[in-house]
Amino acid sequence: MPNYIRITSRGRHNVRVLLEDGTTRVLPTADFEANWNQVQVAPPFEYDENNYVNPSNPEHRVYIRVLRRARFNTTVSLPNGAVVKIPNQYFSTWTQGVDTSDTPLCGAYTRETTRRPQRVLETNTPTEEPALRRRRGRPRRDGSTEPRGFQNPVNQADRIYVRVVRNGSVHTSVLLQDGTTIKIPNQYLNTWLRLGTTDYNMWYESYAYPNGRSLEDCTFGVEIEFIADRNLISDFCTAMDALVGSDRFQCPLRYGHSSKVKWSLGIDNSVQSTQPNSGKSGFELASPILKFNEETKNELKNVLKLITSVFQGEVNKTCGTHVHVGNFANRLSLSFQSKVQSFRNLYGDLERTVFDALVSKSRRGSSNRYCQSCYGTSDSSRYFKINTKKLDVFGTLENRQHQGTLNINKIWYWMELNGRFMTTYFNNPSRFASDTPHSLVSFFNVINLSQEAREFYFTRTRELND
Q: Is 320 helix (H, G, I), strand (E, B) or coil?
């Protein structure tokens, strides 16, 4: 059994120790670490002050963590959540080495409470609110004291996932699972799991979206292609400034013009007038990030009115309507990329039985070079009905299949259908694997499409396929 010793001094290669018989000895560092217990012998007396009892028997040691050093005392944390001060003249009989046990606390102490018993905090699980050491202070109305300070998790298994909000030289502010923010001393941060780890990402997904992503969580972007009179650009820009505000509209008139916060008008050379010398050019109006709510629907409806009334816009077979969907899944998940490829393959399988029936004949199969069929191909270039290239740019999946339209209902229900399809699949792909829908009714039931959208598409399919 290792001997209990007092470390009197340390050198580069040797350690001088005090043995129990009062003699000193110099030990090589390697031999010392391998064969001797790295603690110090307690003095043959006890000192009682502020609920502190100095160790009288080394066998009674337990582990502590140093929280704060001061001129006369050192504040330490006990495993039961209590905090005591140790007089510095006796602190040398306590160890601040690295603990090799499963407990992330370090140091050794023996404590026998004779005054003011300390309250013991329960150990938290990773899905519960972390334990906070409550200092003595002014009681709240419910009789408890305000939570202040920090207590490190007692066991490694009880580590709590946190999101780092702000780094400081002494403390790091972190976000807890209950939405509150506390400061963690930097020397203890590594015992908590941080943003960027897979475990944290899984916790954040289950915490922020306990039932999975929904249509209301999604973000949308709409690209509206149309042809219009070039001489009316100025009038349209003035009308858009008045409708949405000059801070939410821009007119760069170039390709690759989209913005996350502004409506943006650009030129699209793939869109052409079928009437020669008509004086009309191809344009694309890209929306900012939108949410699926009535405010968005009203704004989109008014924008479409300006295109038709002020810009005299119209659509033909060269036009398309592209819908981007974002925030439909946890992109940091390890399985996300494989799910994306599987989703694209599923879309290809459903094209002929579901999606082709909802769009005009010019957008079915591979009849349009800018929205090729996903069926039976592993090619993932941008000109397919499901474009995955925008995931790296905007974090969105783009559906390019819909024909050009300036009708609010056609755009709105297409947004809903894509949002519900993506969230349903990425929340639970097995819903499609176990019972792949091969009809509009079964597909609408699986994705839980709204009744208004169902009625619209049932009427629309009769118009398109008669």
A: strand
**Phi, psi of 234, rounded to the nearest 5 degrees:** -60, -45
Distance of CA 270 to the CA centre of its chain: 37
368 touches 362 (CB < 8 A): yes
Please list the residues that pair with 174 across neighbouring strands: 164, 182
Task: Provide the token pair at 282.
Answer: 């191809």
Buried b (16+ CB within 10 A) or exposed e, 164-202: beeeeeebbebbbbeeeebebeeebbebbbeeeeeebbe
What are the domain boundaries of the chain?
6-91, 123-208, 215-465
Note the residue count of the chain. 466
pLDDT at 291: 96
Phi/psi of residue 454, each to 5°?
Answer: -60, -50
What's residue 78's pLDDT?
A: 64
Across 113-122, b (16+ Cβ under 10 Å) vs e yields eeeeeeeebe
Q: For the structural domain made of 215-465, what CATH number should be given?
A: 3.30.590
Task: Check if the beta carbon of residue 77 is closer than 8 Å to that of residue 65.
Answer: yes
Backbone angles phi, psi at 307, to 5 degrees: -60, -40
Weakest mean pLDDT among 172-186, 217-231, 234-248, 283-297: 172-186
The C-alpha atoms of residue 62 and residue 49 are separated, in whole angstroms, by 19
